[in-house]
Every structure is written in C-alpha cells, then in structure tokens.
Design brief:
Blueprint: H1 3-29, H2 31-52, H3 57-113, H4 121-153, H5 156-176, H6 181-228
Helix pairs in contact: 1-3, 1-6, 2-3, 2-6, 3-4, 3-5, 4-6, 5-6
Amino acid sequence: MSDDLYTRKLREEYDVIFRQCVSLNTELHKLVPLAKQMHLLSSNAVSSAARAGSEGDAFRVLTQDIQLLGDDVSHCIDDTQKVIVDIVMLASNLARLFASYTTYGSVLTRIEEFKDSSTPEQFFRHSQYKIAEEICTNNTMLARSLSLLSNILSPVSMLAKKGEYLAVCSSVEAASSEDHGASFEAVASMLRELVKQLGQHSQRQRTLLRDLSEAMELKQNTMRNLLYAR
C-alpha cells in the first residue's frame, strides 16, 4: 500500500473514531433521564412507606437503600457527562489534525513530482512533523480520557445488581403487606425496570468503550511509528 493510500486509510479510521465517540456520547446521555427517574422513585418509595405507618417499617429501611442507590447512580452519571465532553472534543481535534496531516502529505508528493518547484519543501515537512506530534499528544489524552470514563462506569453494573436485589426485597415486603402491598409493589416494579435499562445501557457503553480503547491503542502505535520514521 502506498504512503498516500495508507494515510488516507488512517484518516478514515480517525473519522470512524470520532463517530464512535459521538455514539458513546449519545449512549451516555440516555442515562440522564434515568437519574431523574431514580430520584422520582426514591420520593415515591418514601411516600409509600410514610402512608403505610407501622406497616411500612420494614419497607422504610429499603427506601433508604433505594435513595442511596439513586444518589450513587446520579453521581456516576454526572461524572460521565463531564468526561464525555472532553472525549468528543479530542476526537474531533484528531480528525481535523489528521486531515491537515494528509493535506501536507499530498503537497509534499506534488513537490517531489516537480523538482524544479520553488516551494520550500522543508517548510511543509516541518509543518507535517509538528502536526504528527500534536496528533500523538491528542492520542494520549484521548486514551487517558477513555480509561477515566471506563473507571467511572465500572460501578454501574454493580449498582444495577444492587437495584435488582432491592427490587426483590421490595416485592417480598409487598407480598407480606396487606393494605399497602400494591404501592410497595409499584415501587418494586419501577425499580426493576430502571435497573434493567441501566444494565442494558451499561453493556452497550462498555462495548463502545472497549472498541474505542483498542482503536486508540493502535493509533498511538501507528502515529509514533510515523513520527519516528521521519
């Protein structure tokens, strides 16, 4: 494969990475409504326990755990929103930088074809080298941001399992309650649905993160090779 075709292929791959980061951003934004719904669920659980009086004593203990779960989910989601902004920006910068890199490569090819050209070849080579350095720096920053996001999201699957356990406990309390069993079961049902969605989103996000991390590792090695080859 010629250098021109190779760099064009890399440019397409950087465009793909940017689109993957945008897709990840879209997936992470789907978590935001879940955080709001978790807070609403916590309020419903507290209200149900309060209306039940002494019959809701055991359920009231569960509402505290549901509230804590909602807080943990919200904190996790808030942290992801801060990091994903940097990730999309870095991916956009990389796509733009590599487009400039390939443009300089095309200019250098033209200069080599016309040896009598008065265009300062050294200027373009130096500019392309500086862009390659910038790409390497952005590659490293994006890889670190993806790693940070992975760490932030790592508790989500555990939180989803905790939510499933609390939903089961809530259903048990609903079954043993008389007058207020229906309201307890409504809380359990809503909790089951929310943690199911949380688990599904988490799985898709982990897949996107894994693919992006693998792609960035390859790009870091590729750009280092291109940089040191010059």
